[in-house]
Q: What sequence folds into this?
């Protein structure tokens, strides 16, 4: 092994001599490079190879390349690149090849090699990397797309890109993204040829030796890709994705027409189809030249376009009465309403239209649960309080088992300061199962703290502990403790803490809150702190190292503390802590003893 490393270091000598001779590095820096390279070489020649060692070596070489580049720029020297940089580049490629050969499944390693090749313009090497990577990771469409894009955009080889896409489709015959990118590539190829032909004609050159097929120029290859894809991939989403790509090219009108006809013929019942047709009215309107039209005329034109869109959406919800269809309609209305406009009349018209659509969807019993919240926000913003209360009540009737819907209704009632809040809370907890009701109880007690008497709030806290699941009651205990301290003081909270400790489960924060409350007292007693720490350690002593360390710190720093107890606390911690936590505790305890923690 030593002979091999020595040989590798000797191979570096010519480039290092050149670096010193041309003044890029000093002799001391050359020695430092050799020392570092020797240490890195020994690490990658061991029997038990580690990926991190290869990564560190590669990163060191890349940093060296960057440093050379900066120093060249500083002194204005641009010669001897073949003897210096090319030698280092060759070594980095060799390291990457060894690493990817050893850890073939690490895609990130392959991608790092690809990025390095792109950065240093190593086209020939990158072609080899892509070839090897795709042979191993042929199950990843994104890598095929990356390779094909590089062939098309960097090497300007449409033929190679097409070949890669065809190979990829043999492995992934039903991958929508592959077909979309293949379709885009064929259109880019057609556009490139159209531009070439135009330039030749402009220069009045003879096109005899160049064969520009009219079919390719008009995007026939892309049409073939599209037709093949539609036989294997179903759904309006794919059709719309392909259509959006076709719209990027100005010579695809016929192709766009064919895609649109297929979309309407095959997916007439799909909400996405109707949504596209409706939004298309907006785009078609925007194509009409407006020139320097007065402001009112522009506003009227926008209003007409939106009305045409809504007419299509009205037709859509009649033809396809589903929740998704209404969701598309409402989303469109909200988008238009949220657009900025200086016209108050247009803004009001958009608001009325949006509220009307919400109401129609609700009356049809097809308004999705998530959209009720947006409807209520809109009503409250528009100061339609009574309507908001009515809608919230209707939502809870329809989704009577949904915690989120009840929570939403209660927030509306609290915001409007209605008198029937308590009645609504009672109704909510009666309808909803105990599991998952934490949000309701949290809202109820927070509202009660600011509205009801202390006695009523305390009774509500105690009721919430019985009504919630054990896991959810943990949060309620913490809130109960906080509220009791704020409203009743230390003596009251100590009694509540003692009573709450009778029923598990607890959280670590529950005990830490009580410890903090004790510390805030003028006469903070170590006896009480020990009681709280001991209770906490009974629950979390096997999983929390910081709790043990805080206990030790308390004994050391408190006026009534007993430093001699630290030894027994340490011994108990070593016995109770599990697995790697013991080592973690020992290291932190050592730092504490030496004053570094």
A:
């Amino acid at each position: 092994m030593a002979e091999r490393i020595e040989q590798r270091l000797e191979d570096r000598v010519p480039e290092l001599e050149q670096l010193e001779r041309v003044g890029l590095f000093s002799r001391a820096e050359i020695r430092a490079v050799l020392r570092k390279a020797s240490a890195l070489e020994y690490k990658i020649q061991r029997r038990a190879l580690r990926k991190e060692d290869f990564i560190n070596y590669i990163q060191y070489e890349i940093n060296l390349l960057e440093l050379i580049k900066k120093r060249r720029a500083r002194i204005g020297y641009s010669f001897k690149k073949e003897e210096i940089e090319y030698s280092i580049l060759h070594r980095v490629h060799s390291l990457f090849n060894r690493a990817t050969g050893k850890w073939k499944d690490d895609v990130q390693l392959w991608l790092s090699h690809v990025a390095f090749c792109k950065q240093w313009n190593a086209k020939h090497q990158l072609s080899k990397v892509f070839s090897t990577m795709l042979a191993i990771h042929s199950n990843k469409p994104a890598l095929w797309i990356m390779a094909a894009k590089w062939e098309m955009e960097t090497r300007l080889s449409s033929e190679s890109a097409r070949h890669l896409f065809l190979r990829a489709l043999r492995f992934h015959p039903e991958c929508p993204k592959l077909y979309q990118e293949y379709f885009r590539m064929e259109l880019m190829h057609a556009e490139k040829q159209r531009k070439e032909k135009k330039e030749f004609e402009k220069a009045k050159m003879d096109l005899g030796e160049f064969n520009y097929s009219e079919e390719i120029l008009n995007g026939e290859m892309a049409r073939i890709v599209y037709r093949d894809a539609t036989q294997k991939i179903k759904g309006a989403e794919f059709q719309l994705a392909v259509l959006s790509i076709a719209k990027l090219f100005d010579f695809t009108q016929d192709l766009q027409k064919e895609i649109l006809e297929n979309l309407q013929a095959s997916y007439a019942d799909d909400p996405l189809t109707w949504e596209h047709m409706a939004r298309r009215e907006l785009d078609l309107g925007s194509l009409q030249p407006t020139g320097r039209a007065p402001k009112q005329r522009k506003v009227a034109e926008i209003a007409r376009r939106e009305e045409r869109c809504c007419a299509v959406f009205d037709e859509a919800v009649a033809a396809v009465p589903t929740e998704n269809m209404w969701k598309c309609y409402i989303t469109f209305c909200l988008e238009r309403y949220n657009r900025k406009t200086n016209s108050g009349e247009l803004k009001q018209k958009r608001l009325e239209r949006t509220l009307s659509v919400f109401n129609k969807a609700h009356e049809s019993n097809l308004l999705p649960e998530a959209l009720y919240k947006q409807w209520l926000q809109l009503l409250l913003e528009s100061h339609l309080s009574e309507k908001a209360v009515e809608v919230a009540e209707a939502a809870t009737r329809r989704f009577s088992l949904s915690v989120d819907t009840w929570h939403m209704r209660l927030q509306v009632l609290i915001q409007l300061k209605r008198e029937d809040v308590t009645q609504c809370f009672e109704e909510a907890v009666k309808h909803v199962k105990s599991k998952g009701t934490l949000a309701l109880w949290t809202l109820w007690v927070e509202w009660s703290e600011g509205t009801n008497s202390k006695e009523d709030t305390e009774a509500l806290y105690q009721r919430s502990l019985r009504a919630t699941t054990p896991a959810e009651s943990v949060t309620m205990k913490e809130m109960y403790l906080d509220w009791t301290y704020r409203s009743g003081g230390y003596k009251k909270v100590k009694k509540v803490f003692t009573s709450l400790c009778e029923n598990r489960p607890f959280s670590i924060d529950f005990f830490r809150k009580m410890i903090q409350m004790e510390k805030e007292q003028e006469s903070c007693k170590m006896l009480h702190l020990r009681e709280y720490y001991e209770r906490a350690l009974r629950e979390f002593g096997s999983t929390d190292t910081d709790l043990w360390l805080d206990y030790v710190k308390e004994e050391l720093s408190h006026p009534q503390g007993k430093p001699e107890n630290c030894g027994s606390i340490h011994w108990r911690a070593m016995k109770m802590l599990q697995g790697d936590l013991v080592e973690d505790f020992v290291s932190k305890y050592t730092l504490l003893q030496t004053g570094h923690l």
Notes: Residues 470-500 form the longest helix (31 residues). The chain is about 75% helix and 0% strand. Residues 437-505 form one domain. The radius of gyration is 36 Å.
